[in-house]
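Record 1 of the preview.
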Amino acid sequence: MLLYTYSIYTSHKQVIDRLCKRFYIPVPPNLSASEALYFANTREKEIKSKVLDMILQWMKGHLYDAEGSSDLVQDVMAFTQELCSDKSEPWISKRAVAIQEAVKETFDQFNKEHTRMKEFKRKVEASVNADSIYKLVPKGSFIDCESFEFAQQLVLFDFENFKQVKPSELLNKNWESKDADRLAPSILKITQHSKLVALRCQ
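->
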């Protein structure tokens, strides 16, 4: 749940910093020799494993958080590179490599998707007039507007709006809250545009 909601109240920089700090958790003070040994052999490994699992899940399924900002990826890659250089615990190095591979794989998917969408937008823009749908119909009537051209213009508008929606905007009906302008700005923009189009079509 943290990976879906953290952007509401903190930043990815703070989250990754806290995770790294948690990974290097020190042995609690005032432990007996047997308790310290148990912590080092059992609890410490469990904590490190959970931290690495969360980062791996983050990089696999939520890397859109890093879109437009390279800080998160740089911090994760620096952290995992440090882990890979430490050969004392092979299982940690193996997990770190898996995280790096997940980052590269996700970015490859991003690049392919961006290329595909840019090509789609280029084709649409090449086949329609650059004016907006409202300039196409200056008198406020859609009767004389060619239907296919009008539909393509709507696609351009909706494409720009939908690609800005973040998953956190969809949680807890944020678009209906008093802070909707802050919690779900993209959804509000889509809603307002849809209402405007519907109003102009009446």
